[in-house]
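ok trying again, last paste got cut off:
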Amino acid sequence: MGNKRGVVTSFLIIAQIVFIVLFAVMVEYDPHHTGPTHLSKGDVTEKNNEDQLLYPMFQDVHVMMLVGFGFLMTFLKRHGFGSVGFNFLLTCYVIQWSLLVNGWFTMLTKNVSTIQLSLENFLHADFAVAAVLISFGAILGVASPVQLLVMATIEVVFYNLSFYVTARFNLIDVGGSIVIHAFGAYFGLAAAFVMSKFKPYTSEKEGSVYHSDLFATIGTIFLWLFWPSFNAGPATGNERHRAIINTILSLSACTTVTFAMSAAVSKKNKFNMVHIQNAAIAGGVAMGASADLLVQPYAALLIGSAAAILSVIGYAYIQPALEKAIGLHDTCGVHNLHGMPGVLGAILSAIFTSMATKEVYGDSYEKLILRGDPSEQAKYQIFSLLVSLAIALISGAFTGLFMSLPIWDRLDCDELYEDGIFWEEDEEETKDKFSLPELSSAL
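nice, full thing came through this time. structure:
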């Protein structure tokens, strides 16, 4: 039975009490951004200007988490409440938990005694949310809310471990192709693979209908609109401006090629809404690690085009082959949208950093080629990818095993992809929901 009374309530209340206590003991405002401060008036003005520039980008990323990811997952015909609702819950839970975990890593590396909060902390918390929501996509509809909270709790720790380990390697990954997208995808896939060994995921309730695909496409469009802020948020100055331009170009090319590829792989030469909802934004993923580099506009278009081809092929051929060969179930196809494009982005970043010169990059050279030598930087781009993937796969497999314990409200087969297990539904709405396939065929 996947909804034992009191389990999720107890988990959330205990977690919130722990958060309140830990914040009271360890967290304070960053005085350089919130005051009171002993900085000069000029320094205070500079900090305020930085915050004013960052806040719109942070809000864009916030919208991506709550509206973009939330609605993108509403394609399941009988799991709309769970897709949006659990997305909302995970976002709010992970923001609090990630502020603490990220702060602990900062305390260790910078030898400080408290966690000092500024707007930048919340942007990085949202990046942790993104990694968790990507993993959520791999097990959408097959995990109870308690299992999802357990996954999020563990994943945030290993996400931050991966982030700080790769930061020690001087990784360049402004848009998170490696540390967010690839990590979140392969963590979720490893967890899904292990969980499937305890309970099969096969259910006739998995699938979409006309109206659910429309809602999911709203999520796609919101992600498309705000992805430049996701890739550019951590950057500043010229690097931020380049990241915005490169991401828009990559997304535009990606969407165009996705439509072409979707029809090409269809026997009836028709567009597939799954491809449009997902592969059309893979260009944002692949562009992430190179977004602030001087790749040139034509290369940004090539990156988006390559991401579209890879993602559509993933949905059309690779995902079915993996499910048939090893039983890997991936509800949202995160391997195709985040995993493979993330790896592609890492490889491309190594190529572009290896080509960097001081003459071309000017004052951006020292900001971006952190290891001082382009070939050395390129090597560590790939090395960081391998380390991040190793952490994701090992920790994801462990998490999947731990989530499968019966105490965490493990779902039975007849409870998969079903809102009614955890959400109150009006009887008339339930009847209408069950008749939606007929409605969709009429439309």
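cool. Residues 434-443 have pLDDT under 50 and may be disordered. The beta strands are 27-29, 115-117.
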